[in-house]
Amino acid sequence: MTYPPSYRYTAQHEWIDVKDGVGTIGITDYAQHELGDVVFVELPKPGARVQAGKSFGNVESVKAVSEIYAPVSGEVVEANADLEATPEKLNSDPHKSAWLVRIKLADQAELAKLMDAKAYEAFISEKNKEASA
Amino acid sequence: MLVSISAEFVEPTVDPSVITELRKTPLNAIHRRLGAKMVNFGGWDMPVEYPATGGLVAEHKAVRGSVGVFDVSHMGDIRISTARSRGGALSAVQHITMNDASKLAIGQAQYSAMLYPSGTFVDDVIVHRLGDDDFLLVINAGTREKDINWVRENTASHDCKVEELSDSYTQLAIQGPRAIDVLQKLTDVDLRPIKNYWFTHGTVCGLKNILIARTGYTGEDGFEIYVPSDVTTSEDVWAKVMEAGREFGIIPCGLGARNTLRLEAKMALYGHEISENINVWEAGLDRYCKMEKGNFIGRSELQRAKDAGVTRTLVGLEMIERGIARDEYRCVNEEGEPVGIITSGSPSPTLCKNIALAYLPPSMSALGTVVYVEIRNQKAKAQVVPTPFYKRARKSTTQQFASTV
Asked: Residue B115 in contact with residue B121, Cβ under 8 Å?
């Protein structure tokens, strides 16, 4: 799966796609692959504030619980309600329809700290090398 | 995202300063070639799932619906046999295990456990009676050293020979309703008459005198075979099993599916449902503990504990509200007061429900009792349900016969 060039990425494997001050956040294809079959998603409600680098929700596979960290700070304007009934979408379409939340960014400057697609791809290719070593 | 793998896949007492290289089974290269996700399980580098063939849920379903194969070579094996006078091995096994090994026929196996004097668990074991005075104990991977030391120390006064054979065998578990069809293609032994928890020896994949046991840890029909542990033989047998199973859709299965399968069948996992702090009565393993067989380690304290009554008991839970109970989550009552602990919890791929095993006070163990599980500081409702969560349909003899004609 390709990593959309317009998105920004974290070292904890979240992505964010910002348009007009609103960022859509999800987990990367690498993340869903590491998790395995996703069976449960827990997300904050609209109005909740998230802080860059802090956990704001959880994704669970059969065997593991994983926290999701906010790439940037802001206020949740929408959570993806579809994922409650169909969490498995996170495995099949992590970069598009299985987005997690939309937030209104508090500080656009925080985006500069994130990786672009090229940097993220290099980052995970290193990880894959470690894993197969 | 930070993956926190469920506790059962992590060595609980790893001191970073003493981490040595992970141990590998003879099939390690195969697992890596298949792209398995590998984890540290009790000091072993083991496959947790094989994403390329569908991953955990597909593996679970393959075993329930057809057949899957597990590398369980990390399990340990201890043989206790006659030294000078016959009967020494039997009396040693009777002394260190709680079930009655004298009741076993040659070729029969039993679920049992080694206990501390406190009546709590050293480990659970499968005892195989190889001969009149010859036994094979199959033990857990994470407790190998502790177990072998325990066996040696506590059988020293018995006239028997103790050998650790753990590294001599590659152990494969072929599990599922079609396991018999797969293995039958690879052996000259007629597998049909072998009953559950019985075993025999025969030629498998051209290898003579292989131990073939109708045992497993999945709640499904299946076999475990013990073949020589050199890499060439191990890889050859693995390849032949995969080839023989192809028509039945066999896939390799990892520890993830092994855990969900055994949980549905309410089979205990050491360090979770049973441990050095939990006794036989609490774990509900009464029917494998034969108090009337004579003295054995743990018996007197168990007698006392039985008279005193238990303060906690193992129950099955099903989540009513949204949420997955995980290992070590707390159970609380309506008022939020702690009442117990989850020992194993997971989504059940067969039942499509979130299930768990938990220790609760006997007063809260009745079927239908509502209890709450603390999940990330929030109470989620669950209720006590019958166990095992999953029980395979056993064919009657006539049906079995009819289906094979």
From this structure: yes
